[in-house]
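Supplementary Methods, section 5.1.

A reviewer requested that the exact input to the structure prediction be made available. We therefore reproduce it here, unchanged from the version used in the analyses.
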Amino acid sequence: MATKDIIDTLAGIEPGTALDGIRARRLQARENAQKSYLSLFEPIDAGDFSLVERAAVALFVIGLHREPNVAAFYRAKLAATADGARLVKAIEVEIGRGETSGPYGAYPAGPLTVENTAGLIYRVSAEGKSILGARLAAALEHAHLLVFRPRDAASADMKALLAAGWSDTGIVTFSQLVAFLSFQVRVVTGLRVLGASLGTASAAAGA
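The structure derived from this sequence is encoded token-by-token as follows.
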């Protein structure tokens, strides 16, 4: 059975609704987003970036974005895996430790340095590392970097992932997954706001 369109699911879009019609106008974009989700979360071969790790990273990234509806989806996905309940609990603790506002960081020396902004340098707690393991701990730290201070990303951060057991291929897929999640949460949030606006307008017209 084909997986239901993930953005429609998360945004609460039903067939035949006004939002469904709006999305249908950009069919290729809709299909490409779904293909991206399937390749990242339902791949034929997960390689050395396991499905459990993918769900764990997703819950952390979406948690940082403070989008409860989307977070609930990835929480359930992780909870359904082996040892999922324990991982969910540990990651939700880390979400609380990593919550902040951004983006922030430092630009290379030059005219943009006036926009440098200091912020949280997130590190997984010792207890979190004992539960999550080196690979996932390094992944969460790097995900936080990509979400809040991408301008600070450097070769040393890639080396930290490699040292924790990530392969070059795994790092590429990991980066794609974080980028997709950031895109997904923005689209879902926007569609929910638009849906609420359309609902308000319809109610006003029928009054």
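Residues 201-205 have pLDDT under 50 and may be disordered. These observations are discussed further in the main text.
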